[in-house]
Structure formats: structure tokens, C-alpha cells
# Entry
Amino acid sequence: MLSPEQKRLVGAVVSAIEAHATDIHAAVRAQLGPRTAAEDIEAVLGILALPSVRYQRGMAAGTVIARIYDALDAAAAGGEYEAPEFDIDDRY
# Structure
């Protein structure tokens, strides 16, 4: 599945987005080191946009990783995973 490095990269990208970073690449590299490949960061951003992941601001990195696993499991079984809608409770 995802290696520890890939999980850290997903977490760093989500963290950068949640922090409203104006330069996602710079924010991720500040967390993970300057050798983090731009292609890897772009790949995670692409994954976050997939309908099967459906990342939205406010979603924890662990939830994002769980959705990636669900999508991979469904694909391995010949199916397709549809991520649930992320409800934002604005009462608080």
C-alpha cells in the first residue's frame, strides 16, 4: 500500500493546504526537506482531487489516507470507491 514516506508526503501536503500556504511546494519541502520532488507533490495534489478521495479543507490527513486505501482496495477488487460527502457543521 502506501509507504511511510508516501504517508508523510500526503500528511505534509494536507498540512500545507490546511495552513493556507501560498506555495504548497515550499511548505512541503520545509516539512520534509528540500529534495522532495515537485512531481511527487503534484501527484499527491492530483490524488486529493480524485472523486474517490474528494479531499476538502478541514479533512484530517488520516481520513485522506483511509480514503486512498479504500479506493485502492475497491480498484483491486474490480470496483470503484465513491467517497462520502464531507459535511461541514457550521453551527459552531
Remarks:
- Residues 11 and 89 are 23 Å apart (CA to CA).
- The radius of gyration is 14 Å.
- The mean pLDDT is 87.
